[in-house]
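Worked example 3. Consider a protein that binds zinc ion.
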Amino acid sequence: MNTPNSEIVLPLPDDFHAHLRQGELMPGYVRDLVSQFGRAIIMPNTVPAMTSAAAIADYKKQILEAAAPVRPDFEPLMTFKLNPNYTEQDLKDMMAVGVVAGKYYPAGVTTNSADGISDFEAVFPVVAMMEKLGLVLCVHGEEPGEFCLDREPAFIKRVETLAEKFPKLRIVFEHLSSAKSVEAVKRLPANVAATFTVHHLMMTLDDIVGDALRPHHFCKPLPKRPEDRKAIREAAFSGNPKFFLGTDSAPHQQGKKECPCGAAGVYSAPVAIPLLVQEFERAGALDKLPNFIAGFGADFYGLPRTTKQIKVVKEKWTVPAIVNGVVPLAAGQTLEWKLK
Ligand code: DOR
Ligand code: ZN
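Given these inputs, the predicted complex is written out as structure tokens:
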């Protein structure tokens, strides 16, 4: 992987959790994503939400058109928003247009989730169909109504129930933010895996409200205590195949973040890979990076591992203050590694 210390060749990364929105802003967000990734799980919390084969097929087409000038071979891995009303035929129709997973949003816990799930058991019949058809269940694991820092730990019992009731269902506990959920995923059977974001590897709650209010770091689930970040970092750097990258890159226009009731989401797509190289290098874990960004996730989803590569060079550059109207993660900072 390593050539004379100033250049690293990596497999072309997969992002197992990305938000691209819709409408006129979407093509710019797509270009930022595909500049670093060859495949991505595209989240369905658009407005309106992705709940039908026709809407998803149209969305996928628009994404491919936007990606074409930068990466014509980009593969969007489509998802639908879970609700109790799907028939098995609905699921089959969505699979036929490229859907690989359904996303469980508990009602009201994050951006565009007011229409999420409020009755846990009501979705079991659809989840059983997903298990039978081989669809992955992606879970935003936060329990509505709990104190904000306790929402994720309070949801672990639900992931345990799903894993027990549906032993053949592949479950991804998304964007882990607590030591307790890292421990739970390690303990649970092999059908349960988890994604880590770049920002949860790097931040604690101090980076959002510690010394000043930093709205561009505000996201769900909230980054938590230093010991939580430590557990996430150790798991990411350990080479355990249950843990892989899902950036949860979530663009919100600057004005939607810098206002009295700001939206949750960190825009990491423009900087994800340089920041990961930096963090893995500092931890002495560069040898674990290829599987984290382009191995374990593909294996879990049953996708072929990529044969494509990217090059990262040791060259200082300054992250722009704004990208496509969004203040990105590490805006204005000088980074050591640059994508070639
Ligand atoms: O911070 C977040 N933003 N967390 C999510 O779960 C959703 C995302 C978004 O769509 O903006
Ligand atoms: Zn997300």
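Take a moment to read the result before moving on. The pocket of DOR (ligand 1) is lined by residues 19, 45, 110-111, 140, 219-220, 248, 250, 264-265 (CB under 6 Å). Residues 12-303 form a domain with the TIM Barrel fold (CATH 3.20.20.140).
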